[in-house]
Amino acid sequence: MNTPALRFLSRLALSGLVLLAATLAPAQAAAIRDLTSVQGVRVNQLVGYGLVVGLGGTGDQATQVPYTTQSLLSMFQRLGINLPPSVASNLQPKDVAAVMITANLPPFAQPGQQINITVSAVGNASSLAGGTLLMTPLKGADGQTYAVAQGNVVVSGFGASSGGNSTQVNFLTAGMIANGATVERAVASNFDQSGPLLLSLNTPSFGTASRVADAINQRFGAGTATAMNAGVIQVLAPLAAGERTAFLGQIEALDVSPESPPAKVVIDARSGTVVLGQNVTLGACAVAHGNLSVTINTQYEVSQPNPLGAGQTAVVPNTTVKAKADKANLLMFKPGVTLEAVVRALNAVGAAPSDLIAILQAMKAAGALHAQLDVI
Question: Name one GO cellular component term (predicted).
Answer without folding.
Answer: outer membrane-bounded periplasmic space
